[in-house]
Amino acid sequence: MNKRKKNRKGFSMSQMRCPYCGGPVTYRSADGIYHDNSRNTMLYVCSHYPECDAYVRVHTGTNIPVGTLANQELRALRRTAHHYFDQLYQSGLMSKQDAYQWLADLICAPLSQAHIGYLGEYYCKQVIEESRKLLERSREKQRRCSRFRIMEGGVAAS
User: Fold this and answer.
1) If you ran DSSP here, which 8-state letter would residue 63 be given?
2) Which stretch of DSSP H or E encloses residue 29?
């Protein structure tokens, strides 16, 4: 009988290693890591936690990780990248599907792998920088169009 636990994607949790310290990774509750774990969130956590603070959340009701293990610095970068990336479609600049295609093109990855939870520091910084540029160009265009409409309205009223 095989005693190794496997998740739905078929990889063995006992074979997972922390990319930071090389320690084994455990599947456990977020209790003691999250200040509030009222949603009973589960995580993959480096067994050397808290000395090595690498972990990743799993999709609710599964044991499938949302991305890859990340330390505090990378988790902060991913949150910032998501903040700017999400604005691309929340602002109406593009559809959510187009935003994910844009992300896939930016990181030169297939659409199926275009998720911020998989990105390292370099690509998180790229997403932040390029998203900011797109958002600023969009805002500048809106400002120019608003000024034109104001001027056009003023001319028409004269």
Assistant:
1) -
2) strand 25-29
d(CA 105, CA 30): 34
- Looking at residue 101, the DSSP 8-state letter turns out to be H
The whole-number mean pLDDT for each consecutive block of 10 residues of the chain, a chain of 158 residues, reads 47 77 96 94 96 96 95 98 97 96 97 96 98 93 70 50
Report angle CA 86, 91, 95 to the nearest 5 degrees: 70
Of 71, 78, 93, 69, residue with least CA distance to 142: 93
- pLDDT, position 145: 75
Per residue, the 3-state secondary structure of 3-52, as one string, reads: CCCECCCCCEHHHCECCCCCCEEEEEECECCECCCCCCCEEEEECCCCCC
Please check whether residue 84 is in contact with residue 124, taking contact to mean a CB–CB distance below 8 angstroms. no
Strands across the sheet containing 55-57: 25-29, 42-46, 55-57
What does the angle CA 13 – CA 14 – CA 17 come to, to the nearest 5 degrees? 85
The span from the CA of 70 to the CA of 45, in Å, is: 9
pLDDT score recorded for residue 142: 81
Q: Is 70 helix (H, G, I), strand (E, B) or coil?
A: strand
